[in-house]
Design a protein that fits this description.
Elements lengths: L2 H10 L4 E4 L2 E4 L16 H7 L14 H21 L22 H8 L5 E6 L5 H8 L1 H6 L2 E10 L4 H10 L4 H14 L9 H10 L3 E6 L1 H4 L11 H21 L3 E7 L13 H5 L2 E8 L6 E4 L3 E4 L6 E4 L3 E6 L4 H6 L1 H4 L5 E6 L5 E6 L5 E8 L5 E3 L15 H10 L3 E2 L2
Helix pairs in contact: 3-11
Length: 418
């Protein structure tokens, strides 16, 4: 199909396109996305990537132009939240046959077998995981032979990253913005310390084997700080809804083809029994891929599921894929000790991180399972305080020292990790 024809088909499908010389950028479902065409340097890009707390509706700043963009973003996010709630009653396609797999089956053999039963495989991961990226990267030659054409990815935003992903796919030149965001993603999730099996390398290697990388998040589904009526399933509903629509439209326009997706393990299959996963929504098969120590692998098994703590109240959340793939990973002890993502493995955990000089930061895992960092500040009287609206009991409250501040956090049922 010619590029002109592709552009026309995308537009007819409701996916806006832009061009810069030979570049083609296809973006899905503009109703929920922040426009990036308002200024020469997109204000939404500035808000999301370079303005501190820019997309957090709980904070105020004086730039009226940025405020206008943020208010538009808030309305589109609200619309997405409302639309996404319908996902619970969505009409789902038939599930593919789940073939019997021997535990000792190689990952290459597993993928070959599954692609005989489905066109889509969804990899569910803990974002720090080495094995999930390793499974894809090491099998890229196989995926290419299997004629898998697209890698769909969480964390990458259609309205902020897709144009840069398209340019990289076509020219091999990665923009500073995309490279910056990938490095932040790897650093924030403490991915492979050897920098072999991480998000950045996954994007680079996928291109080498001809797989197009498509973003399946958007600013409205990803930046949820300050969103009204947030529930424990809000992120899963919004992301899964937007991602499934994006995948479906891309497949409709480009023609049905084999694909693989990399998402968090709460997005791959049905979450808490009410939010259908991307595998269910797209008729695919979900693999929950986990890192295990050398000698501890159980191979490939039907996923028995796992109960994890899903909130500060210690409520249990059930995570389950179609299959569980346990891959042996040897991490240096120092990397395990330094991995905040692993140390704060349950919502409600926090630690005090020492910065330069006497600066300190409270790092905690919230109910949404994300890691949040709140700098400790000092007021004119020399008292310590935190600026965090979501902690109203201590927001802006002065404390004599760190011990008093930590005691207040523990009184909120947060658990300190040394």
């Amino acid at each position: 199909m010619s590029k002109a024809r592709v552009s026309s088909e995308l537009t007819n499908a409701g996916i806006s396109t832009t061009r810069s010389s030979s570049r083609r950028s296809a973006r899905a479902s503009g109703d929920h996305m922040v426009s990036v065409a308002w200024t020469k340097k997109p204000r939404s890009l500035s808000l999301a990537n370079f303005e501190r707390k820019g997309l957090d509706m709980e904070y105020f700043f004086e730039d009226t132009k940025l405020d206008t963009v943020r208010n538009t973003f808030a309305q589109r996010r609200k619309n997405l939240q409302k639309d996404a709630a319908t996902i619970r009653s969505a009409q789902l396609p038939p599930r593919p046959t789940l073939p019997a797999i021997e535990p000792q089956t190689s990952t290459a053999g597993l993928l070959e077998t599954l692609y005989r039963h489905t066109e889509g495989i969804v990899i569910g991961e803990s974002h720090f995981s080495v094995s999930s990226k390793k499974l894809i990267i090491d099998n890229l030659p196989l995926l290419a032979r299997q004629n898998v054409k697209t890698l769909y990815m969480e964390h990458l935003l259609t309205d902020l990253h897709q144009a840069d992903l398209d340019r990289f796919f076509e020219t091999g030149q990665m923009s500073k913005t995309l490279l910056h965001d990938l490095k932040i993603l790897d650093r924030g999730h403490h991915t492979d310390p050897d920098k072999v099996y991480n998000f950045e390398q996954l994007i680079i290697k996928a291109r080498q084997y001809g797989l197009e990388v498509r973003a399946i998040d958007c600013a409205s589904s990803y930046h949820l700080k300050g969103i009204a009526r947030e529930e424990s399933i809000t992120r899963q509903q919004m992301m899964n809804y937007f991602a499934s629509r994006t995948i479906r439209r891309h497949q409709d326009v480009m023609g049905s083809h084999k694909w693989i997706a990399l998402v968090g393990n709460s997005h791959s299959n049905t979450y808490q029994g009410v939010v259908p996963g991307i595998a269910e929504l797209q008729g695919g098969i979900g693999l929950r891929v986990i890192d295990v120590a050398p000698g501890k692998s159980t191979g490939v098994v039907p996923d028995p599921g796992e109960l994890v703590t899903g909130g500060i109240t210690n409520e249990q959340v059930y995570i389950k894929g179609d299959y569980r793939v346990a891959m042996e990973v040897s991490r240096p002890e120092s990397a395990r000790l330094l991995s905040i993502d692993q140390r704060l493995f349950k919502p409600g955990m926090f630690l005090v991180q020492q910065g330069e000089g006497d600066l300190q930061t409270i790092v905690h895992r919230a109910r949404d399972t994300w890691i949040h960092r709140t700098p400790v500040q000092r007021n004119a009287e020399g008292k310590l305080y935190l600026e965090r609206v979501r902690w109203p009991r201590i927001h802006l409250k002065p404390f004599d020292d760190m011990d008093a501040l930590v005691t207040a956090l523990e009184a909120m049922n947060l658990t300190r990790i040394a």
